Amino acid sequence: MAALVSDSLAKKNNDKASENSTAQVIGGDGTNSYSNNSSYQRLSANVVTKKIEDAIMKNLDVETLSSTSNVFRVADFGCGVGSNTINSMQDLLQIVEKKYISQCPTSSQMPEFQVIFNDQFTNDFNTLFTYLPQDKQYLVASVPGSFHNQVLPKSSLHLAHCSYSLHWLSRLPKELRDERSPAWNKGKIHYTSAPPEVLMAYATQFAEDLDDFLSARGREMVSGGMIVIVGSSIPDGMPYSQVVNGIMYDCMGSILMDMVKTGSISEADVDAFNLPIYACPPGEFIEGVERNGLFSIEVIELMNPAPWLKGPIDIPVFVKHVRAAMVGMFSNHFPSKAIDELFDHLVLKLSDISQQLESCYRDGLQLFAILKRR
Length: 374
Prior knowledge:
By secondary structure, the protein is α/β, with parallel strands linked by helices. The protein has helices at about 1-20, 40-45, 50-60, 60-65, 85-105, 125-130, 195-220, 245-260, 265-270, 280-290, 315-330, 335-350, 355-360; strands at about 70-75, 110-120, 140-145, 155-165, 220-230, 295-305, 365-374. It is built from 13 helices and 7 strands. InterPro entries: MeTrfase_7, MeTrfase_capping, SAM-dependent_MTases_sf.
């Protein structure tokens, strides 16, 4: 009877997770909140600030865009909670203002600027808005909803920003939960070190999600508008088991299977759980953009997401950041006591292999792309 209940509960929880499998970060501004544990993400985003400025100064025709509207709209898709998105949007606006001054030196005034923050309905927008500066020189709106769908009016958007969000799948591939499928991911929680059929299922879902994302932005964006994309990636052909996140996901899976042996959770719970995260290689990204056809690729390159990292990794701090960003997915599937046990053991396990982790930080794990609406 206990096994049947566990199987049923695992299926129910995984169905719930697959329907809303994107990131659900810890809201508020408490000790464990995402807003107070996302400095790594901000540092990674800062790496590309100068490149974003160069791309906008070269490719964004603000004179033409301003001829059709006196409002310039910027949107951050997958904004999350905290100051990161606020800072990124202010950086973008400063660059756009610089481009206006450069391209339209005789213009009597700047357009009105509106910043739109988008994320899932569960996002803590109330906490987000507490980080807005009192002296902001732009209008603000929040638009909840999946960015895989259209969330803004047609032809209303001029500049889009998406940082460390596209790697979250809209849903888990059904094959991962089908015991009859070659992609059934038994005993694992990710495609890292999994059979090739599992990797293919993830890649296929990401390709579908990318097309949905681009099609939605294509409807929302004016001709000549641009999308700035920053996010997780990996060189074409490199196994994910050779990068830090891949090693960490394998450790998570191993810890969960150890917890099965101690009775903390059931094996069915683990078999039914998969992380909805995919690091798209640049080759697949280029193919997806070209297949969609609505955008041209102005810039694309792989970068080192952590050039500042020179010494040992502070494992407890690293895991705290990971937990703040990912705990929502685990909470949909496992009891809180089991989640505490998982992350406590993760600190210990990663500490034992810290030198291996440090050796895996390398160039080519952060995608930077600039797309322009045709």
